[in-house]
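[Q] Does anyone have a clean structure-token version of this?
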Amino acid sequence: MKPLKVVLFKPSKYNPDGHVQRFWRGFLPNATGNHIKSMTPREMNGRLIESQYIDENVYHPSEYLHLMEGTPGYETLVALVGVQSHQFQRALDLAAYAKDRGCMSIIGGPHPMTCDTTILQGHGVSFALAEAEIVWPAILADAMDGELRPVYGAAQRWTKELDPPVLQPPTRDALRRYVLPLMGVYPARGCPFLCNFCSVIKIAGRRVRSQPIATTIQTLRAAKAAGVKTIFFTSDNLNKYAEVKELMQAMIDEKIGLDFFCQCDTQAERQGDLIELMARAGCFQIFVGVESFDRAALNGAHKGQNRPETYDQIVRLCRDNGITSHFSNIIGFPNQTRTQVLEHLDVLRSKRSGDAFELGLVATRDHQVCTRLGKGLRDPQTHTLAAARDQRDLALQHSVRHRLLLARRAAPRVTWLVLLRVYGTVVTPRPRRAAGCRSSH
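[A] Here you go.
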């Protein structure tokens, strides 16, 4: 009976020129691969299992392609994990590469969970359509027998209760591949809202499920011992996690001492006691999906829980507790005109005061509607894409500024040069005027 070698692989994506996108240093390590590696036992049914996780974004092909060619004396499983739609083509190519060389291959993540892959099934590459807690043990058992089923998890997408293992932190070599020694932790999953531009409820469900606080605390302790300095709580709307106060208090009591950032919804403006507790536990930034300053646009996106009149209160509440607020903004909602996009940007400019703002084109559940109607999301009648192009420099500056704020908080020595080399973006910082010079405006 052969032992099993598992290669967990987070694929990158193809650039417009056809080359695979890679970075000298990454910024945010993907949490899925590390999570599934921690779920992989060292033995099963008396047989050894060896596992390895590769993030293609920060690895050179010479470091991983040989792992997809199999190892004599082993069954080899290549699992493409956390695959998003823009990475799906690359995942297919890597899975086919591994399959052609005698390995078993399977693709899982947001794309196969939420999109129809029926036409691709039954041709040698398998697909996981559910959370890893549901399908991963069966995948490993079948891989040990040398053959995978075409599909896993078609009957049930989500596990009812979360009881994952304590996460194994990245190795120091893996941490060095990123600008910051950062790790993602997922204490809760799910979101109760129905925003039609968001895929979270399709991926994690509407019921908020959480893992035991003791598991999260042990994970944080292990991360700190491994050299991790910053934590990203990847749960959507951490303030909707019923035990969030207990977790924050446990972090304080246990003297975890790790800085972290997280995501909350706009209803956090009514949770001042929670924000204060989060600050004491180490929170330095909160991502808030404000999306729009237009109430009609928010209602049209099924995000009526957002009230623009509360946004300033969120900023003040965060600042009072030494926390940076990071507001995401969406431009390009269906039926949004060029004039409305520019008005949104005018409001955004008026609020530029040291906190971070991020712009993005909408990528939505509306895609399903538009597909049925035979209408593209970037309909020229609204001129939204043209308006976005006109303002791409502003969006880029905000995006880079956010990353710089994070880097300055967690690693003060990180410079503009490092960030720009990482992201391959040519952006010139605003020059300082020499002493005694007056503006010509």
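[Q] Thanks! Anything notable?
[A] Residues 17 and 108 are 26 Å apart (CA to CA).
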